[in-house]
Amino acid sequence: MNLQFIVDGLSQGAMIGLGAIGVTLTYSILRFSNFAHGELISWGAYATLLIAGLLGTLAGGTTIGPFSFGWPLLVAGLLAMLFTGGLALLLDVVLFARLRAKGHAIIVVMASFGASMALRSLLEFLFTSQPTYFSREIQIAVRLGYGIRVTPDQMFLLGLTAVLVFAMHTLMTRTQTGRAMRAISQNPALARVVGIDVERIVRVTWLIGGGLACAAGVMIGLLVQIRPYMGFDMLLPLFAAAILGGIGSVPGAVLGGLLVGLAEAASVGLIGAQWRAAVAFMILIGVLLVRPNGLFGVAER
After folding, report:
1. CA distance linking residue 194 with residue 184, whole number of Å
2. 230, 134 in Cβ contact below 8 A?
3. Is 42's pLDDT higher than 90?
């Protein structure tokens, strides 16, 4: 029995889950669907590539143990997360916040479509549409039995996902900022009345969402490739994961991402790659028919 789809699905689901955290936080706190979120994934990957190239040139590109990357990529990833979070915040200050103040939610959504196309086109102008890679190192996969093979990069990225999700869960449940974010997602007006600095929480939300989008972009770049449309191709799975897990739930977004990733990977071997996205959305529809608020969502009052 070949269970390779489990590793492939978990890897894909980890990428989707990290990106879906930003989607679910943005929707629960700001009450709009940000269709430019996929482009933050692409910009994060390209920013990491540029910074890693510069650091590698200055210090020499050496790999760490069995991995296909070295410390320049790790440092570059952290710096790019700050950059991508800043880019998300800049989009809000320049565009989304001004439109939110006018009180037209649909206009903000349409503006996110425009921002998405502009950011994607700018990437194509700067880097062309040709795919590129963080590394072309060939890795030897480790056999785990039952037809499962896993590369060192896959194991590292699954571990990194677990660390980031734990950090997010701790932030949301154990810190004042996390409690304020949950309060605003439940009732923004009441949160403002009791003295919560809503504008500060909005800024934190954009920074976190952008940073995690960058992490997802780095994962895609390491396991697949880097290209301007990489984030756009992830957009529908991101929203599927966020809705499946329950809007506003960080664990739900990650679990939703893993379920979508596993469903897509399993469908490739069972019925063909062309039905990959359809199977994931059939599962999504089935869950929502039973539980409209998602797996961990709470009904609004």
Report:
1. 11
2. no
3. yes
Could you tell me what percent of the chain has a pLDDT over 70?
A: 96
pLDDT in tens, 163-175: 999 999 899 989 9
**Predicted local confidence at residue 52, as pLDDT:** 92
Burial class (CB in 10 A: 0-12, 13-18, 19+), 128: exposed
H-type helices in 175-275, by residue range? 176-186, 188-193, 198-223, 230-245, 250-270
What is the per-residue pLDDT for 298?
Answer: 61
In the numeric block, the tokens 């739900």 are attached to: 252
What is the pTM (predicted TM-score) of this model?
Answer: 0.92
Q: What is the 3-state secondary structure (H, E, C) of 140-168?
A: CCEEEECCEEECHHHHHHHHHHHHHHHHH
Non-local CB neighbours of 150 within 8 Å, separated by 6+ positions: 7, 141, 142, 144
Using the structure block, give the residue that is written with the tokens 């390209």: 46
As beta bridge partners, residue 143 has 149
Sorted by where each begins, the domain ranges of the chain are 4-290
The whole-number pLDDT of residue 115 equals 95
Distance, in Å, from the CA atom of 102 to the CA atom of 107, rounded to the nearest integer, reads: 9
Q: Looking at residue 67, what is its pLDDT?
A: 87
Is 132 strand, coil or helix? strand
Identify the bridge partners of residue 149 per DSSP, sorted by sequence position. 143
Fold of 4-290: ABC transporter involved in vitamin B12 uptake, BtuC (1.10.3470)
Q: Supply 111's token pair.
A: 């503006």
* Angstrom distance (rounded) from CA 261 to CA 86: 28
Per-position b or e across 158-183, b if 16+ CB within 10 A of its CB: bebbeebbeebeebbeeeebbebbbb
